[in-house]
Amino acid sequence: MASLRPRRSADPISDSESSDSREGDEGWDDVEQDEEETTEVISLLDDKVFPDVLSMLAYCKESHGFDFLAVRQKLQLDFHGSVKLVNYIRHRVHEGSPVTEDISKADFDQDQFLKPVLDDDAVIIGLFDLPDVVPEGAPAAEGQGASVVDDLLQRNTQLQEELARVTAQFESYRATVAETLDQRWGDVDAAEAEAKAAGDKGKTKAGEKPVDASKYYWESYAGNDIHETMLKDTVRTEGYRDFIYNNKHLFAGKTVLDIGCGTGILSMFCAKAGAARVISVDASDIIDKARENVIHAGLASTVTLIKGKMEEVTLPVDAVDIIVSEWMGYCLLYEAMLPSVLYARDRYLKPDGLLIPGACNMWIAPVADGEYVMDNVQFWRDVYGFDMKAMQSGIWDEVRVLHWPKDRVCGSPAGFKLLDLYTIKTEDLTFSSSWKSELTADVDDGLDGLLVWFDNFFAPSRESQGVGLQSVADEWAKEDKDRVAFTTGPFNDETHWRQGLLLFKHKDGEASSAALKKGTVIEGEVTFAPPEDMPRGLIIKTEWSVAGEAKKHSQSWDMR
Ligand code: SAH
């Protein structure tokens, strides 16, 4: 549905610069210094190790009389065929059977040989760099018979084209392997569940593919931009990373479930922290990229990626020790991903298992900024001399996502909702809570709105969590070095969530209430609920009154 704004993309109702414009992108690298990357190519025919594939193949030819490139050429093997040949040879060697150049294609032309015998086999990865097989009957390429290195040099100009082709081949190889593994894990069940869930919606004619109401949502996560924005949000990504790397003992040997793995970043943090197994689920096509990212990181033997909805896939395990997920949307609950995490918590998390994050709380504070109102509301009354008041329609009805200047927050922030993720239920996500704020300065032109944001808390155990309604991220984290917390509020570095501005209705630019003195108390009740016609959207409503004034105010805003 085109009307839903993906939470992380440049947002039409946003008034602020995107966080891309911020300085300080440096510093979001992996804190762990990778050891010097060394590729170890294990000989196809014994256990000798080489720095690259070509020298290994030269060795096999010289010492074992086995010319891999010649066999590949003779059998006219494409990429898949070459992968099968490598795995077949490794099988034979493993069993102690001889490997000779008179191998026939029939010996290894079975899907089982697509599965790597060695994890991260550098020979398979190195197949990318080997010269093409010349089609039968075609004249030998210039340089054939000369050294392989010369051949590679001559073919330098074709490299781009070749790379695109082999990447595509590798993709399909990986998909084939994934499919085989999925089948082994009984993903047939998942397919059935999907068909059933879709069928339950009851709207499809026999034989027609069922409609997925969230299709637009998965599509919004399929492209690179949204993930780039999230990864470049250093407050967010470093928050997860620091918690995971600072608490490696929690991960060692554990099974972790990453819900909504996106590019796979959190899964890879967990794998590097020592997890025995990471199961990464995402329903968006981005998971195909995650698969590659995981392979390139050399973590394929630890991270298992499963494409599908959390509620519908069948995991290869009955229970997990840790669930990690970055599910938070604008104003925390927009896009309604949390129910998927709660579903997985109830179904898969061990009784003493860990949730990352384990708690969130939500804040509201009054704001006043005459300049903002002039620029964004009054502006329409005189546009090059024309009164465009029609453009103001709906202007007060939408939650505006922006990073608000901290000196325009004019009241004490009030924590109004605590989400203890270990205990909260999906039905608790539709709620009403009271809030109370005291003005921290005189407000001469009245209040202009309310600002909403949230904090996230990461604790190494349920017991040590201790988050309260008014817990402030920084202070809470300081209490214990194993904790990490971050805020999306206006007083700290901007995050890609920014804050939600609930702009009060101004009549022809007039402020919504009269001048108020420092210390005045504003009290209200705020309600969060999804719109009936759009379960991933959000309606925020609040009633409020100013101490000493009889008038009760009420207004609602939505995000669709
Ligand atoms: N973990 C990644 C991506 C977070 S964005 C990171 O931290 O960078 C959230 C991701 O969750 C999206 O890729 C979205 O497709 C996925 N997602 C949301 N709900 C899901 C569900 N119910 N099942 C599977 N994937 C889901």
UniProtKB/TrEMBL annotation:
<keyword id="KW-0479">Metal-binding</keyword>
<dbReference type="GO" id="GO:0032259">
    <property type="term" value="P:methylation"/>
</dbReference>
<feature type="domain" description="Protein arginine N-methyltransferase">
    <location>
        <begin position="361"/>
        <end position="547"/>
    </location>
</feature>
<dbReference type="GO" id="GO:0035242">
    <property type="term" value="F:protein-arginine omega-N asymmetric methyltransferase activity"/>
</dbReference>
<keyword id="KW-0963">Cytoplasm</keyword>
<dbReference type="GO" id="GO:0005829">
    <property type="term" value="C:cytosol"/>
</dbReference>
<dbReference type="InterPro" id="IPR055135">
    <property type="entry name" value="PRMT_dom"/>
</dbReference>
<feature type="domain" description="Protein arginine N-methyltransferase 3-like C2H2 zinc finger">
    <location>
        <begin position="72"/>
        <end position="116"/>
    </location>
</feature>
<dbReference type="Pfam" id="PF13649">
    <property type="entry name" value="Methyltransf_25"/>
</dbReference>
<dbReference type="GO" id="GO:0005634">
    <property type="term" value="C:nucleus"/>
</dbReference>
<dbReference type="GO" id="GO:0008270">
    <property type="term" value="F:zinc ion binding"/>
</dbReference>
<keyword id="KW-0862">Zinc</keyword>
<feature type="domain" description="Methyltransferase">
    <location>
        <begin position="256"/>
        <end position="353"/>
    </location>
</feature>
<feature type="region of interest" description="Disordered">
    <location>
        <begin position="1"/>
        <end position="36"/>
    </location>
</feature>
<keyword id="KW-0949">S-adenosyl-L-methionine</keyword>
<dbReference type="GO" id="GO:0042054">
    <property type="term" value="F:histone methyltransferase activity"/>
</dbReference>
<dbReference type="Pfam" id="PF21137">
    <property type="entry name" value="ANM3_C2H2_Zf"/>
</dbReference>
<feature type="coiled-coil region">
    <location>
        <begin position="149"/>
        <end position="176"/>
    </location>
</feature>
<dbReference type="InterPro" id="IPR041698">
    <property type="entry name" value="Methyltransf_25"/>
</dbReference>
<protein>
    <recommendedName>
        <fullName>type I protein arginine methyltransferase</fullName>
        <ecNumber>2.1.1.319</ecNumber>
    </recommendedName>
</protein>
<dbReference type="InterPro" id="IPR036236">
    <property type="entry name" value="Znf_C2H2_sf"/>
</dbReference>
<dbReference type="InterPro" id="IPR049482">
    <property type="entry name" value="ANM3-like_C2H2_Zf"/>
</dbReference>
<keyword id="KW-0863">Zinc-finger</keyword>
<keyword id="KW-0808">Transferase</keyword>
<keyword id="KW-0175">Coiled coil</keyword>
<keyword id="KW-0489">Methyltransferase</keyword>
<dbReference type="InterPro" id="IPR025799">
    <property type="entry name" value="Arg_MeTrfase"/>
</dbReference>
<feature type="compositionally biased region" description="Acidic residues">
    <location>
        <begin position="26"/>
        <end position="36"/>
    </location>
</feature>
<dbReference type="InterPro" id="IPR029063">
    <property type="entry name" value="SAM-dependent_MTases_sf"/>
</dbReference>
<dbReference type="Pfam" id="PF22528">
    <property type="entry name" value="PRMT_C"/>
</dbReference>
